[in-house]
């Protein structure tokens, strides 16, 4: 299959034969870049569908990083030691940084960050379903690092080869940080498992609550994932939801054994023939419910994001006023220098 017949983008319907052939040429150039596994950069021509799909995916990813600060941020003031507080602080700050790189990547496609934030707080753009679950104990911090950041690694490592340059490059650094997040979570859990019986129970309880929502993070099954095919053909995405979910399960099972916890799935077993684990089916109606806004913490998460945005209005105003003043001074200086030179 060539890129030309696999790419779902139709050549534009430019009026007149001249513009149609010009557009076809641009489309061919784009298709060849994709077929050769080279990168599309911000100044390159790209089909409108590609641009829209990327903006949607990158914005959703950015929103997830920012909203994802909340469930764990809740535990910063209650961390059990200075060391745990410092680690958690660093991790939550990293997530803010991930959000910022991603909003910047979306801006290279012509999106406006203020508009994306508005869409998030008005519920017109989504973020990962996983962040709509509550963090009930400190073990949840460990399990989020292990499962949620682990799932993020499965998702994001292939995105380092995504066809859009700024997105792929942002992912390289993000993945390095996600790997620290996963390790700190696992190490926290290992420490708790070496502690008291009550601590071990807390870990098992957190594992029981987060396992299925973590599997849902990869999105609906491939058959019900309408945007997947286009994203795969454009090499924005490199693996399907089900492939990534399988990879996550295979990676996590031996880690659970070493930790000494049980993953809450009676159907989970090694399949010799496939060389992979078989596992049960997540509750897709729950995923639908959470995505459509009816999860345990959806309204709380959005309300908090909205409040932070409103409370930060004076910072944005001050920064814009300062930038305008600097620009005016620079313009004045340029005019003065021109006058002096004349
Ligand atoms: Fe992140
Ligand atoms: Fe992370």
TrEMBL record:
Q: Name one GO cellular component term.
A: cytosol
**TM regions (residue ranges):** none
- Coiled coil stretches, renumbered: none
Q: Name one Pfam family in it.
A: PaaA_PaaC
Give one GO biological process term.
Answer: phenylacetate catabolic process
Q: Where is this region: Disordered?
A: 1-25
Compositional bias per record (Low complexity), positions renumbered to this chain: 1-12
UniProt superkingdom: Bacteria
Q: Which GO terms describe its molecular function?
A: phenylacetyl-CoA 1,2-epoxidase activity
* NCBIfam families noted in UniProt: PA_CoA_Oxy1
Matching PANTHER family: 1,2-PHENYLACETYL-COA EPOXIDASE, SUBUNIT A, PHENYLACETIC ACID DEGRADATION PROTEIN PAA
The protein, known as: 1,2-phenylacetyl-CoA epoxidase subunit A
Its source organism is: Peterkaempfera bronchialis
């Amino acid at each position: 299959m060539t890129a030309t017949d696999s790419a779902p983008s139709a050549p534009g319907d430019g009026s007149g034969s001249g513009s149609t052939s010009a557009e076809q040429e641009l489309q061919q150039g784009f298709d060849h870049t994709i077929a050769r596994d080279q990168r599309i950069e911000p100044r390159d021509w790209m089909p409108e569908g590609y641009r829209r799909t990327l903006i949607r995916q990158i914005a959703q990813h950015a929103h997830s990083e920012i909203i994802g600060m909340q469930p764990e941020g809740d535990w910063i003031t209650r961390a059990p030691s200075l060391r745990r507080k410092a680690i958690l602080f660093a991790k939550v700050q990293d997530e803010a940084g991930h959000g910022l790189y991603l909003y910047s990547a979306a801006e290279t496609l012509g999106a406006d960050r203020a508009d994306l934030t508005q869409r998030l707080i008005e519920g017109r753009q989504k973020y990962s379903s996983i962040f709509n679950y509550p963090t009930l104990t400190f073990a949840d911090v460990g399990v989020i690092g292990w499962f949620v950041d682990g799932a993020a690694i499965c998702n994001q490592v292939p995105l380092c080869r995504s066809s859009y340059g700024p997105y792929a490059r942002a992912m390289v650094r993000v993945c390095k940080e996600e790997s620290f997040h996963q390790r700190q979570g696992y190490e926290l859990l290992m420490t708790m498992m070496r502690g008291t019986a009550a601590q071990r129970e807390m870990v098992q309880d957190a594992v029981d609550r987060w396992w299925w929502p973590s599997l849902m993070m990869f999105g609906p099954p491939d058959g019900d994932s309408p945007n997947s095919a286009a994203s795969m053909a454009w090499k924005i995405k490199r693996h399907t939801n089900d492939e990534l979910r399988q990879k996550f399960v295979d990676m996590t099972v031996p880690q659970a054994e070493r930790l000494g916890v049980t993953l809450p799935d009676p159907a989970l077993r090694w399949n010799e023939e496939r060389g992979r684990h078989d596992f049960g089916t997540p509750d897709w109606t729950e995923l639908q419910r959470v995505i459509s806004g009816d999860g345990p913490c959806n309204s709380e998460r959005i309300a908090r994001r909205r409040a932070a945005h409103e409370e930060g209005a004076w910072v944005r105003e001050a920064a814009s006023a300062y930038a305008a003043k600097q620009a005016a001074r620079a313009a004045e200086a340029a005019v003065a220098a021109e006058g002096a030179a004349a």
